[in-house]
Amino acid sequence: MVVALVVVGLVVGAISGFFGVGGGMILVPTLLALGIDIKSAIAISVVQMVFSSILGSYLNYKKGKLQVNEGIWVGVGGVLGGVIGAQFTDILPERVLEYLLLFLVTFALIRVITSKKPPQGQGKKSFSKLTLFFIGFFIGIIAIMLGVGGSIMLTPILVGFLHFSTKEAAVAGLFFVVFSSISGLFYKIFSGTFENLNLDFTLALSVAIASLVGVVIGIKLKDIIKDTHHKHSLIVLYLIILALLIKKIFIG
Question: Is the pLDDT of residue 183 over 80?
Answer without folding.
Answer: no
